[in-house]
Protein: Glutamate dehydrogenase
Amino acid sequence: MTARRQLERAGTLLEIDPNVVERLKYPQRVERVSVPLERDDGTVEVFTGYRAQHDSVRGPFKGGLRYHPDVTEEECIGLAMWMTWKCAVMDLPFGGAKGGVVVDPNSLSDGEKERLTRRFTQELRDVIGPMQDIPAPDMGTDAETMGWLMDAYSMQEDETTPGVVTGKPPVIGGSYGRETAPGRSVALITREACEYYDRSLSETTVAVQGFGSVGGNAAVLLDEWGANVVAVSDVNGAVYDPDGLDPKAIQAHGDDPTAVMGVSSAQQLSNEELLTLDVDVLIPAAIGNVLTEANANDVNASMIVEGANGPTTSTADVIFERRGIPVIPDILANAGGVTVSYFEWLQDINRQGWSLERVNETLESEMLSAWDNVTETYELDEDISWRDATYVVGLQRIVEAHEYRGLWP
Structure:
């Protein structure tokens, strides 16, 4: 598992108790549940759901719920571990969790998706809660899904409990800026990384694989700040124009699944070809494990900023390090989502509401603080990578918390 290998590597860079590292290799709990669903035609189908809870030493578990046919227990555990590191890097009072249902969301009607969500919530009722485990949207789920989850949990508890989940519509306790936050943080970290390497955004070319909520919003912001976004892609393929694209015009047609490929003035490429374009910054923001041993030597970008979770395999990481290509890791770059989820949780438990301006300003402040902490660690040792430095920052905080709390006998 990539997450476990990254933990072990970071552990060797710190003089810490190996027993704590050993504890962090395993989740505290994994719930596996059966989720029966009555389909619209009256038949009943049973789906498998998971909720992996990795570590809660710093606070309640936090992490997304995804609906996807490839959801597995191992995947949920790995993603939960990454959430633990991500929350610690951002210094949020949360631990990591992840979950989902093994289902193709495109095969569900709206009514079926709602019934599935409500039943899944019932199955997880004993292990989630605003002070226990707080889910959020992920692949195949959205703000509406989180609204159903919040309502189902609230009905079961006999009181409205908005803090049980984040990523809800603002009208029922969600936070403004939550949906765009991961992409905004990717753009912010890309901007800071370019500045670190004395690269002007106005002279920076960017390729974004995955023009969804993360990649699309990152591309729009970087374009607004002066970068030249020359390539973007979605599940159907990629488009490339060395003179630059207009991400905002493409995003305006976001509900159209052919929006990216509909850019007639640009050259059409495959998603794989986009990864090897000669650009200054490559942002893999689609799915995991797209940068591998098979293509790492063909990547021509000067820098990689990870928008998706786990887009780079451990072997590819070694190749990039050998080639001198800096990789800014996912647990820093896309941490805007969980950070604004934290803002939403604060608003819910305090029955307050923040303006979009306050959310975005506070997010930028938190992201820059995390970037400064990681940069300081990175500069202490010329032999470590950006990923190593990020893990060291997070792991130090987690280890310190474990040492103060001790081990229950």
The first strand starts at residue 29 and ends at 38. The domain at 15-163 is CATH 3.40.50.10860 (Rossmann fold). DSSP finds 14 helices and twelve strands in the chain.
